Amino acid sequence: MSEGRDTIAAISTAPGEGGIAIVRVSGPRAGEILAAAFRPAREGAKMRSHMLRYGLAVDGNGAAIDEVMAVFMQAPNTYTREDVAEIHCHGGGVCAAAVLRRALELGARSAEPGEFTRRAYESGRIDLSRAEAVMQLVGAQGEAARRAALRQMRGGVSAFVGDVIAQLTDILSRIQAAVDFPEEVDEEAVSVEIRGEIDEIAGQIERRIDPRRARILREGASVVLAGRPNVGKSSLMNALLNCERAIVTDIPGTTRDVLSERFELDGRVVRLSDTAGIRESEDSIERIGVQRAQSEVEGADVVLLVLDRSQPLTEADKELLSLADERYILCLNKADLPCRLEAGLPNAIPAFSLSARTGEGMEALTASLQERLGATAYEDECFTVERQARLAREAADTLRGCAQALQDGFSPDVISPELLNVCNLLDNVTGRDASEEVISAIFANFCVGK
Ligand code: GDP
Predict the structure, then answer these.
(1) Mapping DSSP to helix (H, G, I), strand (E, B) and coil, where does residue 302 land?
(2) pLDDT tens-digit map of 408-439
(3) CA angle 162, 163, 166 (to 5 degrees)
(4) Mutate to test the pocket of ligand 1, among 234, 235, 337 (most ligand atoms within 8 A of CB)
(5) Which of 3, 184, 282, 374 is the most buried (most CB within 10 A)?
(6) CA of 329: how far to CAs of 223, 300, 380, in Å?
(7) Nearest residue by C-alpha to atom 13 in ligand 1
């Protein structure tokens, strides 16, 4: 397997201070390099595969570099499917750097970014989408992203893609049968049937490429607090964050800029921004704040529009309400005071009576936020990696085009090349060699049917 390959080495742990730092070596010379760079504490102890040993990392003169734990893992039951050695040094980078230098001296090459995982892919241990999921897992922001990446690494998207390819292959074989046995197959009926199936498949793919969900999962959601000055935005932000970060004051218009904080809600990373009161402003500094606030609102996933329920709606409130769309949640703040809010709130937008001061109603608000940002049924199988989403989008669009062609009266065999193309696109998601497999599957299918 590793014939002709060189041996690579790198520090596999994050830079900076830490308890341990791990130097990883992969390739045909991993065992030899470990034997030269590591001396087990128990003289003459034999290195057994996958067994961690205690000892010293030593330099070319046999002098100790660090006290370490080391493991040799024999191919093929390793991450890369090559021989792998790991030396667990003391953290902080200096020891690991010295051990890495030693490994390089002994003939290893510095690994490129992602090269261990690339070897895992090239050796066929994982497919492309899983390799990408590994990268995503390493960079995951928040619990939900970690869960999604892990699921995908274990095959979430691969399984779905495999399913779709199997369905398309089946459709292709039925089209082929209609071409080959025109007197036995009712082409019109086949056309109607597969059109429905193709639309259904396109829908399944589309539900998994919701770019907003994918972005929320990857980068976290953006939640923006809007409302005119003094309605209690900073207080609500504090209540949500449960700490005293924003400056609370009684003078309107003092939250001039956009202030944002990150927190985790049910495992999801949320960036919560408090905006300057959005309203017409004469003051130039405040106006800049207002502009920034408006652009924050435009890019937000959820807008919490705060109103002061202890006062009648003002013109500014009404103007803000007129901008509300499906991303909005109304926060009717100061519920601890007598209500002077008359009717006139839009029905379509969910509203919560709450008090940032006493905490009343906050639970219902966070529950609603959670639901907004929460999981979809397909979250674990979403095309969260941009490259995959692009391919999936193209696949879905092509399928919709095929369904349209059938609708327009084209005969089913006209769309066969397009369906094959979709299989190829999807195969590129997982990186398997597509058309070969698809073609032989069609052939096999055809033989069985015959
Ligand atoms: P912002 O300008 O919208 O950010 O409003 P602030 O958070 O600075 O609050 C303005 C004033 O309203 C402050 O005096 C707060 O103490 C007060 N306030 C905020 N929330 C509540 C609430 O739920 N109840 C009451 N009674 N006062 C509140």
Answers:
(1) strand
(2) 999 999 999 999 999 988 988 876 553 444 33
(3) 85
(4) 235
(5) 374
(6) 10, 12, 27
(7) 250
